[in-house]
Fold:
Amino acid sequence: MEFLKSSKRRSLVSELVYIALNVAFAVTILIVVLAVNSPLPAFALVLLSKWRILAVRPRYWFVNIQTNLVDIIFSLSIVILLYSAGGAIGVQILLTALYIAWLLYVKPKSKRMFVAIQAGAAIFFGVTALMIVSYDWIASIVVLAMWLIGYSAARHVVSSYDEPHTSFYSLTWGFLFAELGWLGYHWTFAYTLPGAGDIKLSQIALIALAISFVSERAYQSYVKHGSIRSNDIIMPALLSGSVILILLTLFNTISTGAI
Structure:
């Protein structure tokens, strides 16, 4: 009994230390962004925190990098949003709290629902952050970055199933995102968020998330039933289609600002 009690105490202490370290890391990212007029040091901290990816034999590096791409994309996107929200301390604190929730609750989960949420978060925040910073980049870099976001999100979801064609599906979805990136580079709308500094909500981010949501529901239906059942995707398709239609008709005629 004493051994069991001791084990429980060690487990509790380990859990508290884990929580404290993650909270401290997120707060440190915020402090660095506030203290330095550049997101680069915070980028470096995020990448250094992934040192375990390379703490194995080199032959496993590529696999580990692919496995952690969604987390890396989300983390770097949070840094960009924190930097873009300069002067809006309330928004920066909210983003830091969101990052803490990601580190403590969302990221460690391996159930398919949470895997889908992780991929969706990487898509939404990744594309939003990319469109904020890429207004003066060359098109090929934006297209490549969008391909990476689409590829990593698709691979993250499909890998949670016993899917023999993971690479094919991931590469295909990456290609679709590359097309969206090319479109978004040349023609996009962004919605200014009151009191959020220079953060703008990209229309392409919302469209990419909506399309990905329907595709994930369709893929899950196919895996479960051997075919895509209309009952499984009709509501997601109607919701996503309505959002896209509203964005492309109503909100394209409103002066929302451009990235």
In short: The radius of gyration is 20 Å.
